[in-house]
Amino acid sequence: MLALSHGRPLIVPDLAGLTDLPGQAVLRYDGSIPALAVALERLARANDDALAAMSAAALSYASETTWQEIAERTMSEMISVLGDMQQAGASGQPVRVR
Fold first, then answer.
1. Beta carbons within 8 Å of 47's beta carbon, 6+ residues apart
2. Quick one: what percent of the chain has pLDDT higher than 90?
3. What is the rounded CA–CA span in Å between residue 63 and residue 7?
4. Mean per-residue pLDDT over the chain, rounded
5. Alpha carbon of 30 to those of 62, 84, 87: distances in Å?
6. Region 23-40: what's the mean pLDDT?
7. Considering only CA atoms, which of 27, 24, 29 is closest in space to residue 54?
8. What percent of the chain has pLDDT over 70?
9. Is residue 52 classed as helix, strand or coil in its secondary structure?
C-alpha cells in the first residue's frame, strides 16, 4: 500500500492474497524466478504512457482504500493461514504456505 500510495506500479506474484490489487497498477507473474525476470524486464522497458497509467491507477486505488479495509483483509488472510495451520497439524500433513 505504501508503494501504491506513492503512485508506484508493483510487480507481484499471482497469489490469492494479492488479488484485490488493481490489475492496472500491478504486473503479475507466476511466482517463478524466470517469470519475475520477464516481469522486471517488461516493466523496465515500459513506455512513459504505460507507466503513467499504472501510476495513476496505483494512486487511485490507494486513495480509495481505507485503513479499515486493509485491516479487515489482513485479518482475513491471517485467519485463513492459521486455520490452514491448525487443520494441517490435526491431520499430520505439512502446512501449506501461500
1. none
2. 66
3. 10
4. 89
5. 24, 22, 26
6. 97
7. 24
8. 85
9. helix
Q: How many CA atoms lie within 13 A of 40 on its CB side?
A: 7
Amino acid present at 18: L
Q: How many CB atoms lie within 10 A of CB 29?
A: 19
Domains of the chain by residue range: 2-65, 66-98
Count Cβ atoms below 10 Å from residue 80 Cβ, excluding itself. Answer: 13
Amino acid in the structure at residue 42 = R
How large is the average pLDDT for residues 66-88? 84
Helix, strand, or coil (residue 12): strand
Q: Is the pTM of this model over 0.85?
A: no
Rounded to whole angstroms, how far apart are CA atoms 4 and 6? 5
C-alpha separations of 20 from 14, 41, 49, 61 in Å: 11, 24, 24, 10
